[in-house]
Amino acid sequence: MNALERMKETLKQEIRDAVVNAGLAAPEQVPEAVLEVPREKSHGDLATNMAMQLARIAKKNPRQIAEEIISQIDRDKAFVKEIQVAGPGFINFFINRSYLTQVLIEMAEAKDRYGRTNTGEGERVLVEFVSANPTGNLHLGHARGAAIGDVLCNVLETAGYDVTREYYVNDAGNQMNLMALSLQARYLEALGKEAPFPEDGYRGQDIAKIGRTLAEEEGDRLVRMDEEERLHYLRQYGLNHLLAKIKEDLGRYRVHIDSWFSETSLHESGAVEEVTKELSRRGKTYEKDGALWLKSAEYGDDKDRVLIKQDGAFTYITPDIAYHRDKYERGFDRIVNIFGADHHGYVPRIKAAMAALGFDPDRMAFLITQMVKLYQGGERVKMSKRTGKAITMVDLMEEVGVDATRYIFAMRSPDSHLDFDMDLAVSQSNENPVFYVQYAFARINSVFRQASTRGIPLEQSVIRESNSHGTISIPRVDPDSLCALREEQEYDLLQKLAEFPGEIAVAAEQMAPHRVVRYLHELATQFHSYYNAHRAISEDERLTRARLTLFAGVAQVLSIGLAMIGVSAPEEM
Prior knowledge:
There is one protein chain. Among the domains are: 3-95, 2-Layer Sandwich (Gyrase A, domain 2), CATH 3.30.1360; 102-110 and 431-564, Isoleucyl-tRNA Synthetase, Domain 1, CATH 1.10.730; 174-252, no CATH class. It is built from 22 helices and 16 strands. It is globular and about 90 Å long. The strands form five sheets. The protein has a five-stranded parallel beta sheet. 48% of the residues lie in helices and 14% in strands. The mean pLDDT is 94. The chain is of the alpha/beta class.
């Protein structure tokens, strides 16, 4: 519990004690004290409707009750400088915000762990994201899903959840057979042999390159193989190389995957066949027109779904049901799926299937990311100038950088459409959101360099430590100097810093990683405003130390927050 939370809990307790001391209610009759932030700043910092809650119990007018409560509150203990009764009986509190300097002490103790909570209590969460077909490049939708998924995982971990990141490899089905045939044709071409190309084959450069590599490594050894054996070998060889490329691209994008789950493993283990038998044993299937159907409409789907077709082949949804059954059986408390906009109709089908299997579908959540449109020079961009083909995640990273790509994709709610302005993403202006936040961090470090140049002992106010994300500034607290922080904007900054752990906890609970990005932008806005209005370094040594300490606190949170969204924190720009 940080200083802000302690202040609120103290005030709540004072309100409860005041009710009892005023004789308005017995201890067991006192409702839970609720504090809210008024919409208008003129109405105070916090407000409660306790007087109105007590009207029936105390049998008095709420405004009279409010006055009696106020008379019993210990203002010093509750950090209250003024109390007003408003409207039908609201009690508005104007807080003495000097207590907020305690936040810097807590931040100094926590170091790079500031913001961490135990909200998740170790709850096991599986987050599946990206899961792109391995036969193609990662496109813009995958890039957005990867950024959102990775940031969400970071947020969940910071809030105390036990997170596993998973990629579902679609390595079964006709697309892999087609890939093997395409690779065979390119391999034979590389050997100078006649090679008919499959009609719907994969003609991308990746397959051609793998074919040339295969010819260099194996020569004509594969030509002498039985065709079935050769295609089996090519299928696995091609998959390994394609997955290696995806892993490399995600690595450049600063995304780590813990588990690569193979669809083929579900078929080889018999899990796909078993799940259809389990559903039938439960009476959740029926036969019609020679096919096996799932009674998914009974569980909220818009219609029943075919599991096994007339020819005995599984439909695409059957392995997916087996896969999600496996997720539940692995014991995860919460299962999160991040999919593209084309999967919207997929959600009720999978939830229905899990309910039919006896699992709680409410343990499973879906984040559906909406479409991305790229703009450059005021016009929509669809093709890469370099390749003449659809722009991929790699193209965008090379064009605008990883920082801008990840930040912009993570800054909006997944369910909102996103217009990505490539010109804005590379501009060094306040309109560029990632530059705006990074510049706040760079500005602080510029002030630290100025302090050193002017002979001001920075170590009195700032600790500089290295971690996996670079150098982090941590406040070195001198309680005596912190008393010099008295400006409202200073208290605003301190309160914003105090809100960071709570913001992370809410973002995790609501699975809304964009809240963290919004928070960083708001913190940067407050800092830039303060920086433009106040000098950090002055002739007042005590005030200078206090403001450098405050700056270190802001830099600490910016560094932690930017690392959480996978964006660098440059000390110079």
